[in-house]
Amino acid sequence: MDTQAAPLESRPHSAQRRIDRLLAHYGQSHQHPTNERIHVVAIPAIMLSIVGMLHALHPWAAYAFVAGSLVYYALLRSPMFLVVMLLWTAALLAIVHALGERVLVVSVTLFVVGWIFQFIGHKIEGKKPSFFEDLQYLYVGPLFVADLGLRRLGIRA
Question: Which stretches are transmembrane (predicted)?
């Protein structure tokens, strides 16, 4: 059987793309519909808050963070996800700039509220957040949200 044509579930572990393994593992602790819905809102809010707080510290701190994030996403070798994350990054930076002087207050509020909801979602799920075992899952969360959105559009990245 050609492993490239085999469904993801039947492929040998080594033939699966790294991004597919990361998303599958992340998805194991995000199966409850309420937890999933919370993450779809909270993850973008948290990402916006991080970029916003860094921008309030110094704009170049925010640019360095998003550049580092995009390097991580590029290393996953998924052109579709890289394009989505480039667009997501552009949107985050546009929102941060639009917030102007309110960026710090809004960002801190979003950060605190977003994390509260994330932990509520994991309490409902009954499973701990993935990043407790590996910090790279903090970067996988946005990919999970992007993947859910792409799937709703009928696109498999």
Answer: 38-58, 70-96, 103-124, 136-154
C-alpha span between 23 and 88 (Å, rounded): 18
Return the amino acid letter for 59. Answer: P
Going from the C-alpha of 21 to that of each of 5, 59, 102, 148, the distances in angstroms are 17, 34, 39, 15
Token readout for 145 is 């949200």
- Compute the distance between CA of residue 68 and CA of residue 60 in angstroms, rounded to an integer: 12
DSSP-derived 3-state class of residue 113: helix
SS3 content of the chain, % helix, strand, coil (to 5): 80, 0, 20
Residue type, 5: A
Average pLDDT over the chain, rounded to whole?
Answer: 89
At 3 the pLDDT is 40
Single pTM value for the model: 0.84
